[in-house]
Amino acid sequence: MRLCFLVEEQYRHDGMPLEVIHQLRAWGHQVDVVWPGRSLIRISEAIQAGSHDAWVLKTVSGGPGLTLLEAAASVGLTTVNDVRAIRGVRDKALAAVIARGKGLPVPVTYAAARPEEFAEIAEAEFPLVVKPADGSSGRAVRLVATPDRLLEPGGPAGPDGPVGGLLIAQPYVPNSGTDLKVYSVAGELYATERCSPLHPAHAVRERQVPLTPEVARITAGIGDVFGLDLYGVDILLGPDGPVVVDINDFPSFRQVPDAVARVSAAVLDLARNGARGRGREACGGEASVREDAQDMQDAQDVQDTQAAGRTGAAAPPATAQAGATAAPPSPFAAPSVPRPTRPAASIGGGR
Protein backbone atom coordinates (compact mmCIF):
# COMPACT_ATOMS: atom_id res chain seq x y z
CA MET A 1 0.00 0.00 0.00
CA ARG A 2 0.95 3.64 -0.34
CA LEU A 3 0.43 6.01 2.57
CA CYS A 4 1.08 9.68 3.27
CA PHE A 5 1.83 10.72 6.87
CA LEU A 6 1.39 14.35 7.89
CA VAL A 7 3.69 14.91 10.88
CA GLU A 8 3.83 18.23 12.73
CA GLU A 9 7.13 19.67 13.94
CA GLN A 10 6.33 18.85 17.58
CA TYR A 11 6.40 15.12 16.80
CA ARG A 12 9.42 14.96 14.48
CA HIS A 13 11.47 13.02 17.07
CA ASP A 14 8.69 11.08 18.80
CA GLY A 15 8.29 7.32 18.62
CA MET A 16 4.67 7.73 17.63
CA PRO A 17 4.26 7.93 14.68
CA LEU A 18 7.89 7.61 13.51
CA GLU A 19 8.25 3.99 14.62
CA VAL A 20 4.97 3.21 12.86
CA ILE A 21 6.37 4.70 9.67
CA HIS A 22 9.48 2.52 9.95
CA GLN A 23 7.37 -0.56 10.67
CA LEU A 24 5.15 0.00 7.64
CA ARG A 25 8.19 0.45 5.42
CA ALA A 26 9.73 -2.71 6.87
CA TRP A 27 6.54 -4.57 5.91
CA GLY A 28 7.06 -3.44 2.32
CA HIS A 29 4.64 -0.51 2.10
CA GLN A 30 5.54 2.88 0.66
CA VAL A 31 5.21 5.71 3.15
CA ASP A 32 5.70 9.33 2.17
CA VAL A 33 6.12 11.89 4.96
CA VAL A 34 5.07 15.53 4.79
CA TRP A 35 6.15 18.01 7.44
CA PRO A 36 3.43 20.71 7.22
CA GLY A 37 5.34 23.19 9.38
CA ARG A 38 8.56 23.21 7.34
CA SER A 39 7.75 22.05 3.82
CA LEU A 40 6.70 23.68 0.57
CA ILE A 41 3.78 21.55 -0.56
CA ARG A 42 2.31 21.57 -4.05
CA ILE A 43 -1.06 20.98 -2.50
CA SER A 44 -3.12 21.09 -5.71
CA GLU A 45 -1.00 18.58 -7.61
CA ALA A 46 -0.23 16.34 -4.65
CA ILE A 47 -3.81 15.88 -3.52
CA GLN A 48 -5.46 15.83 -6.92
CA ALA A 49 -3.04 13.10 -8.00
CA GLY A 50 -4.76 10.76 -5.56
CA SER A 51 -1.76 8.43 -5.56
CA HIS A 52 -2.03 7.41 -1.89
CA ASP A 53 -4.33 4.80 -0.42
CA ALA A 54 -4.73 6.88 2.75
CA TRP A 55 -3.51 9.99 4.53
CA VAL A 56 -2.60 9.79 8.21
CA LEU A 57 -2.35 12.80 10.53
CA LYS A 58 -0.23 13.27 13.66
CA THR A 59 -0.56 16.93 14.46
CA VAL A 60 -1.07 19.48 17.20
CA SER A 61 -4.42 21.21 17.61
CA GLY A 62 -4.59 24.22 15.34
CA GLY A 63 -1.61 23.04 13.28
CA PRO A 64 -1.53 23.25 9.47
CA GLY A 65 -1.76 19.48 9.01
CA LEU A 66 -5.50 19.33 9.57
CA THR A 67 -6.16 21.65 6.63
CA LEU A 68 -4.13 19.35 4.37
CA LEU A 69 -6.00 16.32 5.64
CA GLU A 70 -9.33 18.03 5.00
CA ALA A 71 -8.16 18.91 1.50
CA ALA A 72 -7.40 15.23 0.85
CA ALA A 73 -10.82 14.21 2.16
CA SER A 74 -12.51 16.83 -0.01
CA VAL A 75 -11.50 14.93 -3.15
CA GLY A 76 -12.60 11.59 -1.75
CA LEU A 77 -9.31 10.27 -0.34
CA THR A 78 -9.28 8.06 2.77
CA THR A 79 -8.04 9.71 5.97
CA VAL A 80 -7.02 8.17 9.31
CA ASN A 81 -8.90 9.07 11.47
CA ASP A 82 -11.97 10.23 9.54
CA VAL A 83 -11.30 13.94 9.11
CA ARG A 84 -14.70 15.06 10.42
CA ALA A 85 -14.12 13.00 13.55
CA ILE A 86 -10.78 14.76 14.09
CA ARG A 87 -12.35 18.19 13.80
CA GLY A 88 -14.98 17.18 16.35
CA VAL A 89 -12.43 16.43 19.08
CA ARG A 90 -9.75 19.03 18.31
CA ASP A 91 -12.02 21.79 19.61
CA LYS A 92 -12.46 20.87 23.28
CA ALA A 93 -15.50 23.13 23.66
CA LEU A 94 -17.22 21.46 20.71
CA ALA A 95 -16.20 17.99 21.92
CA ALA A 96 -17.67 18.66 25.37
CA VAL A 97 -21.01 19.72 23.90
CA ILE A 98 -21.21 16.73 21.54
CA ALA A 99 -20.20 14.19 24.17
CA ARG A 100 -22.47 15.55 26.90
CA GLY A 101 -25.35 15.76 24.43
CA LYS A 102 -24.94 12.03 23.74
CA GLY A 103 -25.14 11.16 27.42
CA LEU A 104 -21.43 10.64 28.04
CA PRO A 105 -20.11 11.67 31.50
CA VAL A 106 -18.49 15.03 30.76
CA PRO A 107 -18.35 17.90 33.30
CA VAL A 108 -20.42 21.03 32.80
CA THR A 109 -18.32 23.21 30.50
CA TYR A 110 -18.03 26.99 30.26
CA ALA A 111 -16.34 28.91 27.45
CA ALA A 112 -14.88 32.43 27.33
CA ALA A 113 -12.30 34.37 25.37
CA ARG A 114 -10.75 35.83 28.53
CA PRO A 115 -10.18 34.04 31.84
CA GLU A 116 -11.62 36.88 33.91
CA GLU A 117 -15.05 36.11 32.42
CA PHE A 118 -15.09 32.88 34.43
CA ALA A 119 -15.45 35.02 37.58
CA GLU A 120 -19.18 35.09 36.80
CA ILE A 121 -19.39 31.38 37.59
CA ALA A 122 -20.82 30.71 41.05
CA GLU A 123 -18.03 30.39 43.60
CA ALA A 124 -19.54 27.10 44.76
CA GLU A 125 -18.41 25.56 41.45
CA PHE A 126 -14.75 26.38 42.13
CA PRO A 127 -12.10 25.10 41.93
CA LEU A 128 -12.16 25.16 38.13
CA VAL A 129 -9.90 23.50 35.58
CA VAL A 130 -9.17 26.13 32.91
CA LYS A 131 -7.46 25.27 29.62
CA PRO A 132 -7.30 26.37 25.96
CA ALA A 133 -10.04 24.93 23.77
CA ASP A 134 -7.41 24.03 21.19
CA GLY A 135 -4.79 22.83 23.66
CA SER A 136 -2.77 19.62 23.55
CA SER A 137 -0.18 17.71 25.62
CA GLY A 138 -1.46 19.28 28.84
CA ARG A 139 -0.42 22.74 27.65
CA ALA A 140 -1.58 25.61 29.92
CA VAL A 141 -3.98 23.44 31.92
CA ARG A 142 -4.53 25.20 35.22
CA LEU A 143 -6.38 24.53 38.45
CA VAL A 144 -7.99 27.74 39.75
CA ALA A 145 -9.06 27.53 43.38
CA THR A 146 -11.08 30.76 43.64
CA PRO A 147 -12.33 33.52 41.29
CA ASP A 148 -9.69 36.00 42.49
CA ARG A 149 -6.92 33.72 41.19
CA LEU A 150 -8.06 33.61 37.57
CA LEU A 151 -5.49 36.17 36.46
CA GLU A 152 -2.46 34.86 38.32
CA PRO A 153 0.81 34.62 36.28
CA GLY A 154 1.35 31.35 34.48
CA GLY A 155 -2.32 30.84 33.71
CA PRO A 156 -4.14 31.20 30.38
CA ALA A 157 -3.73 35.01 30.50
CA GLY A 158 -0.31 35.05 32.14
CA PRO A 159 3.10 35.39 30.47
CA ASP A 160 3.36 31.61 30.01
CA GLY A 161 -0.18 31.11 28.74
CA PRO A 162 -1.62 31.30 25.23
CA VAL A 163 -2.65 34.61 23.78
CA GLY A 164 -6.10 34.76 22.18
CA GLY A 165 -8.35 31.84 21.34
CA LEU A 166 -11.20 30.30 23.26
CA LEU A 167 -10.79 28.99 26.79
CA ILE A 168 -12.92 26.41 28.55
CA ALA A 169 -13.51 25.87 32.25
CA GLN A 170 -14.92 22.82 34.02
CA PRO A 171 -15.52 22.22 37.74
CA TYR A 172 -12.66 20.20 39.22
CA VAL A 173 -13.47 16.53 39.74
CA PRO A 174 -12.01 15.34 43.07
CA ASN A 175 -9.71 12.39 42.42
CA SER A 176 -6.64 10.54 43.67
CA GLY A 177 -4.22 12.58 41.53
CA THR A 178 -3.99 9.78 38.97
CA ASP A 179 -5.28 10.08 35.41
CA LEU A 180 -6.70 7.05 33.64
CA LYS A 181 -5.82 7.07 29.95
CA VAL A 182 -7.68 4.57 27.79
CA TYR A 183 -6.45 3.94 24.25
CA SER A 184 -8.47 2.47 21.42
CA VAL A 185 -6.62 0.75 18.59
CA ALA A 186 -9.37 0.04 16.05
CA GLY A 187 -11.67 -1.43 18.71
CA GLU A 188 -9.14 -2.95 21.10
CA LEU A 189 -9.04 -1.03 24.38
CA TYR A 190 -6.08 -0.60 26.74
CA ALA A 191 -6.11 1.28 30.05
CA THR A 192 -3.08 2.97 31.60
CA GLU A 193 -2.63 5.23 34.60
CA ARG A 194 -0.30 8.18 34.97
CA CYS A 195 0.26 11.27 37.08
CA SER A 196 -2.25 14.07 36.56
CA PRO A 197 -0.79 17.33 35.17
CA LEU A 198 -2.73 19.08 37.94
CA HIS A 199 -0.89 17.07 40.60
CA PRO A 200 2.74 16.86 39.42
CA ALA A 201 4.00 16.15 42.94
CA HIS A 202 1.89 12.99 43.18
CA ALA A 203 4.22 10.10 42.36
CA VAL A 204 2.55 7.64 39.98
CA ARG A 205 4.31 4.92 38.03
CA GLU A 206 2.91 4.90 34.52
CA ARG A 207 1.62 1.40 33.83
CA GLN A 208 -1.10 -0.63 32.20
CA VAL A 209 -4.06 -1.35 34.47
CA PRO A 210 -7.21 -3.51 34.25
CA LEU A 211 -10.10 -2.01 32.33
CA THR A 212 -13.49 -2.10 34.02
CA PRO A 213 -16.67 -2.78 32.00
CA GLU A 214 -17.99 0.73 32.82
CA VAL A 215 -14.86 2.50 31.57
CA ALA A 216 -14.79 0.22 28.50
CA ARG A 217 -18.40 1.16 27.72
CA ILE A 218 -17.65 4.88 28.03
CA THR A 219 -14.53 4.64 25.86
CA ALA A 220 -16.31 2.63 23.17
CA GLY A 221 -19.12 5.19 23.28
CA ILE A 222 -16.63 7.99 22.54
CA GLY A 223 -15.53 6.15 19.40
CA ASP A 224 -19.13 5.62 18.33
CA VAL A 225 -20.22 9.21 18.90
CA PHE A 226 -17.24 10.85 17.21
CA GLY A 227 -16.46 8.18 14.59
CA LEU A 228 -12.89 7.64 15.80
CA ASP A 229 -10.79 4.51 15.27
CA LEU A 230 -7.40 5.45 16.77
CA TYR A 231 -7.91 7.58 19.86
CA GLY A 232 -7.31 8.11 23.56
CA VAL A 233 -9.64 9.22 26.34
CA ASP A 234 -8.60 10.84 29.63
CA ILE A 235 -10.87 9.66 32.43
CA LEU A 236 -10.95 10.61 36.10
CA LEU A 237 -12.44 8.27 38.69
CA GLY A 238 -14.45 10.79 40.69
CA PRO A 239 -16.74 10.32 43.67
CA ASP A 240 -19.73 9.81 41.35
CA GLY A 241 -17.97 7.49 38.92
CA PRO A 242 -15.83 7.89 35.76
CA VAL A 243 -15.73 11.33 34.12
CA VAL A 244 -14.32 12.10 30.66
CA VAL A 245 -12.03 15.15 30.72
CA ASP A 246 -10.26 14.94 27.34
CA ILE A 247 -10.29 13.13 23.99
CA ASN A 248 -7.30 12.83 21.64
CA ASP A 249 -7.12 11.52 18.09
CA PHE A 250 -3.97 9.49 17.28
CA PRO A 251 -2.38 9.79 20.75
CA SER A 252 0.90 8.34 22.02
CA PHE A 253 -0.39 4.83 22.88
CA ARG A 254 2.09 4.64 25.74
CA GLN A 255 2.10 1.36 27.65
CA VAL A 256 0.01 -0.39 24.98
CA PRO A 257 1.62 -3.82 24.42
CA ASP A 258 3.37 -4.02 21.03
CA ALA A 259 1.99 -0.55 20.29
CA VAL A 260 3.96 0.00 17.08
CA ALA A 261 2.86 -3.27 15.47
CA ARG A 262 -0.75 -2.89 16.62
CA VAL A 263 -1.10 0.71 15.43
CA SER A 264 0.67 -0.08 12.14
CA ALA A 265 -1.69 -2.98 11.44
CA ALA A 266 -4.68 -0.80 12.34
CA VAL A 267 -3.54 1.96 9.96
CA LEU A 268 -3.29 -0.57 7.13
CA ASP A 269 -6.73 -1.98 7.86
CA LEU A 270 -8.28 1.49 7.96
CA ALA A 271 -6.48 2.46 4.75
CA ARG A 272 -7.96 -0.59 3.00
CA ASN A 273 -11.46 -0.43 4.43
CA GLY A 274 -11.88 3.24 5.31
CA ALA A 275 -12.27 4.90 8.71
CA ARG A 276 -15.69 4.16 10.12
CA GLY A 277 -16.69 7.84 10.56
CA ARG A 278 -19.83 6.81 12.43
CA GLY A 279 -19.81 10.11 14.28
CA ARG A 280 -20.15 12.29 11.18
CA GLU A 281 -23.76 13.20 11.89
CA ALA A 282 -22.96 14.16 15.48
CA CYS A 283 -19.93 16.24 14.56
CA GLY A 284 -21.77 17.94 11.74
CA GLY A 285 -24.83 18.76 13.84
CA GLU A 286 -27.16 16.75 11.62
CA ALA A 287 -28.98 13.49 12.48
CA SER A 288 -28.06 11.60 15.65
CA VAL A 289 -25.45 8.89 15.48
CA ARG A 290 -26.70 5.47 14.36
CA GLU A 291 -27.06 3.01 17.22
CA ASP A 292 -28.02 -0.22 15.50
CA ALA A 293 -27.89 -3.70 16.99
CA GLN A 294 -24.42 -4.40 15.61
CA ASP A 295 -22.99 -1.34 17.33
CA MET A 296 -24.45 -2.49 20.62
CA GLN A 297 -23.06 -5.98 20.13
CA ASP A 298 -19.60 -4.58 19.31
CA ALA A 299 -19.58 -2.54 22.52
CA GLN A 300 -20.66 -5.56 24.54
CA ASP A 301 -17.93 -7.69 22.98
CA VAL A 302 -15.33 -5.08 24.00
CA GLN A 303 -16.61 -5.08 27.56
CA ASP A 304 -16.61 -8.88 27.81
CA THR A 305 -13.13 -9.15 26.34
CA GLN A 306 -11.58 -6.52 28.57
CA ALA A 307 -13.34 -7.69 31.71
CA ALA A 308 -11.88 -11.14 31.16
CA GLY A 309 -8.38 -9.60 30.98
CA ARG A 310 -7.74 -10.69 27.43
CA THR A 311 -5.72 -8.55 25.03
CA GLY A 312 -6.06 -8.41 21.27
CA ALA A 313 -3.16 -9.48 19.08
CA ALA A 314 -1.70 -7.28 16.41
CA ALA A 315 -2.09 -8.39 12.83
CA PRO A 316 0.76 -10.71 11.85
CA PRO A 317 3.37 -9.41 9.42
CA ALA A 318 1.97 -11.62 6.65
CA THR A 319 -1.38 -9.84 6.90
CA ALA A 320 0.26 -6.44 7.18
CA GLN A 321 2.35 -7.09 4.10
CA ALA A 322 -0.64 -8.01 1.97
CA GLY A 323 -1.30 -5.51 -0.75
CA ALA A 324 2.24 -4.15 -0.91
CA THR A 325 2.67 -3.38 -4.60
CA ALA A 326 4.88 -1.19 -6.71
CA ALA A 327 3.58 2.38 -6.76
CA PRO A 328 3.93 5.19 -9.30
CA PRO A 329 6.24 8.12 -8.54
CA SER A 330 5.07 10.19 -5.61
CA PRO A 331 4.07 13.86 -5.89
CA PHE A 332 5.95 14.25 -2.60
CA ALA A 333 9.61 13.86 -1.85
CA ALA A 334 9.77 11.36 1.01
CA PRO A 335 12.44 12.67 3.38
CA SER A 336 14.38 10.38 5.64
CA VAL A 337 12.57 9.99 8.95
CA PRO A 338 14.85 10.32 12.00
CA ARG A 339 14.70 7.17 14.09
CA PRO A 340 13.90 7.92 17.74
CA THR A 341 16.60 7.14 20.26
CA ARG A 342 14.06 5.89 22.78
CA PRO A 343 12.97 2.24 22.66
CA ALA A 344 9.53 1.46 21.27
CA ALA A 345 8.36 0.41 24.72
CA SER A 346 8.54 4.01 25.90
CA ILE A 347 7.18 5.89 22.92
CA GLY A 348 6.44 9.52 23.53
CA GLY A 349 3.61 11.86 22.63
CA GLY A 350 0.97 14.21 23.98
CA ARG A 351 -1.81 13.46 26.39
Class derived from helix and strand content: alpha+beta
Shape: globular
Biggest beta-sheet profile: 5 strands, antiparallel
Strand order of the largest sheet: 11-10-9-12-13
C-alpha Rg (nearest Å): 20 Å
Distance between the termini: 30 Å
Structure description:
The strands form three sheets. The chain has a five-stranded antiparallel beta sheet. β9 (178-185) and β10 (188-195) form a beta hairpin. It contains ten helices and 13 strands. The two termini are 30 Å apart. It has helices at 15-26, 43-49, 65-74, 83-90, 92-101, 213-226, 259-273, 280-284, 293-307, 317-321, and strands spanning 2-7, 30-34, 54-58, 79-80, 110-112, 128-132, 142-144, 167-171, 178-185, 188-195, 207-209, 230-238, 241-249. With 351 residues, it is an alpha+beta fold. Residues 156-163, 278-303, 305-317, 323-337 and 339-351 have low confidence and may be disordered. α1 packs across α7 (259-273). 44% of the residues are buried. The chain is 29% helix and 20% strand. The longest helix has 15 residues, at 259-273.
